[in-house]
Design a protein that fits this description.
Length: 217
């Protein structure tokens, strides 16, 4: 009968236990991290949104009801959305916008913020004009961008000013000035392109086509 070398076997058992613990803990951490991150983000969003109106509600009613501020804010957003759908509501909203635009310090904050929102929503004169593609970061690799304006180089050649969004936070993109001939105009709407960027490419259109006719718009 073979003798078992317990002295040599003990380190192997210890190594297996250590490896098992390490692998199992890593697996558990990978499962819990997204849950923890989701909880922290949702809690932060809820606290931030609820905290916007909670002090006003608490001062008016004299009680603190968690979540009431968030509900009130959602109702306010909803009513502003309703106001945009009828003539009288639009007049009131436009009057309020005009008043904000006439206040010097407020105007410096409100005007750029509104232009940015209009751009990402594809509404207004300040919105993105076309969804385009540029060949970047290498040949035959294409990047989605938004045409914001056209200009002319010192040699008289037409240039396109392209905003390149980063996924999934498109507000942290960068600006590229390219010869117009190097820009491909697509058949995508701004909304479809934004869904593509915000989802990190998960929500993709069934087809992205080049539409040269859009260059004349």
């Amino acid at each position: 009968m073979a003798k078992v070398d317990s002295a040599n076997n003990a380190p192997n058992v210890g190594t297996r236990i250590t490896k098992h613990l390490r692998v199992t803990l890593i697996k558990g951490l990978l499962i819990l991290l997204p849950m923890i991150a989701t909880y922290v983000i949702v809690k932060w969003l809820f606290t931030s949104i609820d905290g916007l109106l909670q002090p006003i509600i608490q001062e008016s009613l004299g009680v603190h009801l968690p979540g009431l501020g968030a509900i009130a804010l959602i109702l306010i957003i909803y009513f502003f959305g309703l106001a945009e759908e009828n003539f009288l509501g639009r007049r009131i909203v436009n009057t309020g916008r005009g008043m904000l635009m006439r206040i010097p310090i407020i105007n410096a904050i409100y005007a750029p913020a509104r232009q940015l929102i209009d751009a990402f929503s594809g509404t207004g004169d300040s919105g993105f004009r076309q969804v385009v593609m540029i060949e970047y970061p290498r040949k035959d690799a294409w990047t989605i961008g938004f045409l914001t304006a056209n200009t002319t180089g010192v040699d008289g050649s037409p240039l396109s000013i392209i905003y390149i969004p980063t996924a999934p936070t498109p507000n942290s993109g960068w600006i590229a000035l390219l010869p117009d001939k190097d820009v491909l105009y697509t058949n995508l709407s701004v909304a479809s392109a934004m869904h593509l960027v915000l989802s990190g490419g998960i929500i993709a259109p069934p087809m992205i086509g080049n539409d040269p006719a859009l260059k004349s718009q």
